[in-house]
Write a structure and sequence with these properties.
The chain contains eleven helices and 14 strands. The mean pLDDT is 96. By secondary structure, it is α/β, with parallel strands linked by helices. The structure holds nicotinamide-adenine-dinucleotide. The site of nicotinamide-adenine-dinucleotide has 28 residues, from helix 1, helix 5, strand 5 and strand 7.
């Protein structure tokens, strides 16, 4: 049996795609998820893509007993820790819920790993830790000034992991700061299905294209950007997934802690995304430019050179591919993993 990698939050958007990349790289993903923001039916879809059904364990990262059982039952070589809550607005309304899930959950996980003698960890951080950066592209050395509780949970866990490594230098930790993950697996079998109104641009655009929503409200058309709309670094979720595998491989080569941006290094505006999605789908995306949204920054994209130098990884998929893959998923699964929507 190939080495087991425990994937907390493995039934979620990025976690499920990472399971595909892990299997392709010869690892056995072990999904650990409480399904608070995931559909268990993703596991059957993964079986179709991977060729065998991944083990999926229902459990909570805040439960030491749940985690201890997994470490006792399986020979786990490393952990990729996606489990967490990610909605900025919810984190403002429920900071304690976010600190509990994201920070306390990560502490319990690290304690369980320490007890089990597992010292390889890849952690899902976020470009949100930078807040409103002084410059783009944003290098890892940029100041961290997270502007909301969600971003602070990520930054706190980064600092906890740095302290953990300081105390235990044999640990192998990769902190990955994602920019804007979008797209879906090219099969169209797995993808992102936000519950309720999407907070992010790409799922919103997809839902307009498929007729679930009337039009997209573009927040701000007067930013100091080439077309006036906000610019972000969209990165294909499969590129991101492969970045996690590259981080594991790096950890196998040497202990230490690395903090790396995962992005393309290129910015795309809201209007660029709309145009690309229109090309991919053949649909026109109704949109209306409105006022800026408080807290949004004009432009924000990654400097990914350290990730390339350290991991030998770079994002290769284009914005057109991101939109084409999002569209394939959305069109085939307008209601996510609901059976009525299955192909
Ligand atoms: N999607 C993004 O834009 C983005 C950007 C930067 C960082 N991240 C981080 O990447 C990670 C994965 O994000 P995603 O987009 O796949 O989100 P997601 O919500 O699809 O996946 C998170 C998964 O974690 C599970 N989960 C949540 N709390 C849990 C707990 N206490 N115990 C066990 N499982 C739990 C959920 O059920 C879900 O399956 C998150 O930590 C998120 O903060 C996401």
């Amino acid at each position: 049996m190939s080495p087991h990698i425990l994937v907390t939050g493995g039934a979620g958007f990025i976690g499920s795609h990472t399971c595909v990349a892990l299997a392709a790289a010869g690892y056995t993903p072990l999904i650990f998820d409480n399904f608070c923001n995931a559909d268990p039916r993703v596991v059957e879809r993964l079986e179709t893509i991977i060729g065998n059904k991944p083990v999926a364990i229902q459990g909570d990262v805040r439960s030491r007993a749940d985690l201890d059982r997994v470490f006792e039952q399986y020979r786990v070589q490393g952990v990729i820790h996606f489990a967490g809550l990610k909605a900025v607005g919810d984190s403002v309304a429920d900071p304690l819920g976010y600190y509990d899930n994201n920070v306390a959950g990560s502490v319990v996980l690290a304690q369980a790993m320490l007890a089990a003698g597992v010292d390889t960890l890849v952690f899902s951080s976020s470009a949100t830790v930078y807040g409103d950066p002084d410059q783009s592209p944003v290098p890892e050395s940029a100041a961290c000034r997270p502007a909301n509780p969600y971003g602070r949970t990520k930054r706190m866990v980064e600092e906890i992991l740095s302290d953990l490594h300081h105390a235990n230098p044999s640990w192998r930790i990769s902190v990955l700061r994602y920019f804007n993950p979008v797209g879906a697996h090219e099969s169209g079998l797995i993808g992102e299905h936000p519950r309720g109104k999407p907070n992010n641009l790409m799922p919103f655009v997809s839902q307009v294209a498929v007729g679930l929503r009337d039009k997209l409200a573009v927040h701000g058309g007067d930013y100091p950007t080439p077309d006036g709309t906000g610019v972000r670094d969209y990165v294909h979720v499969m590129d991101l997934a492969e970045g996690h595998v590259a981080a594991l491989r790096h950890s196998e080569r040497q202990p230490g802690i690395v903090t790396l941006n995962l992005g393309t290094g290129q910015g795309a505006s809201v209007l660029d995304v709309i145009k690309s999605f229109e090309r991919a789908s053949g649909k026109s995306i109704a949109h209306e430019i409105g006022p800026r949204r408080p807290g949004d920054v004009a432009a924000n994209w990654a400097d990914p050179t350290l990730a390339t130098a350290t991991l030998g990884w770079r994002a290769t998929r284009t914005l057109d591919q991101m939109c084409a893959d999002s569209w394939r998923w959305q069109q085939a699964n307008p209601n996510g993993y609901e059976p009525s929507a299955a192909r």
